[in-house]
Amino acid sequence: xxxxxxxxxxxxxxxxxxxxxxxxxxxxxxxxxxxxxxxxxxxxxxxxxxxxxxxxxxxxxxxxxxxxxxxxxxxxxxxxxxxxxxxxxxxxxxxxxxxxxxxxxxxxxxxxxxxxxxxxxxxxxxxxxxxxxxxxxxxxxxxxxxxxxxxxxxxxxxxxxxxxxxxxxxxxxxxxxxxxxxxxxxxxxxxxxxxxxxxxxxxxxxxxxxxxxxxxxxxxxxxxxxxxxxxxxxxxxxxxxxxxxxxxxxxxxxxxxxxxxxxxxxxxxxxxxxxxxxxxxxxxxxxxxxxxxxxxxxxxxxxxxxxxxxxxxxxxxxxxxxxxxxxxxxxxxxxxxxxxxxxxxxxxxxxxxxxxxxxxxxxxxxxxxxxxxxxxxxxxxx
Length: 382
What we know:
- The chain is α/β, with parallel strands linked by helices.
- It contains 13 helices and 15 strands.
- The chain has an 8-stranded parallel beta barrel, surrounded by 8 helices.
């Protein structure tokens, strides 16, 4: 086990938030002011970055990242990019502009997409493997543009002549994140990604996937870093944490679970989604799929569907197990995201050796939180 601090990111819920899964009770809509609160909290608490996902159910992650950047100081924005929505030259210009606006705090997460119905609404009609072939061509051009080259390229899906980027990025190189559990996805990651991003599976399964990605990169003389996308439910005690997990699905009906699982099975061709769904099979009675790894989120949420549940020391130990497999960055989240950002920073960061971004410069009066604040009760009372 290593004691090197993990790079901890948070999540901006651009499709909405809430206190319960699969229910309108306690729902929080994706209003910009609320997302700004979450970003500013993550920035202040010491999270290194935040992921913004892409999809027809989301506010646009790039416009949202551009709007949030001026309201934060250190937080990096990992915004998802769907290659088929625009040309690599267009995306390169957007990337460079956002990197300059944020003063070098922008990152790109390339997502090919796994829902043909949703993709059809965006005018993308490629098959599963063809989407990854398109992504490979896209990244060939995109990365060369970010490197300052003038690009001529003719592929099956993409053609450019004399493409170039006049306004460069601040970061050089700017890291590219990529995920994909299929053989086609792993091939693209091995050739083009800087960071391979995966959802939280039991450690033994994840070890196999990381090894497969490493092998493909090594065949090309490359190395990869690895990121883990997972939810965190951390409380002072194990019992409190598991109670919080159970509470998330208090208002989740069996009909809602069945409907969500049917939708995932019928509409998604994502291998990663199939792996997530197989972890629990849509059943409430088999949600702890590995020690402290809970699959309840995936009963109704597509994509990342697992959470680490427990007290700070236990959750930290589980994250260290993933780190030992090669994970460098954890992209965490929790419901609701504003309050859970504080819980993760206050409870889990110390156990992981991550320094909080908060700097206190005053004492607090007795009768509030004063004991232990640096001022003696007698002095405060006087």
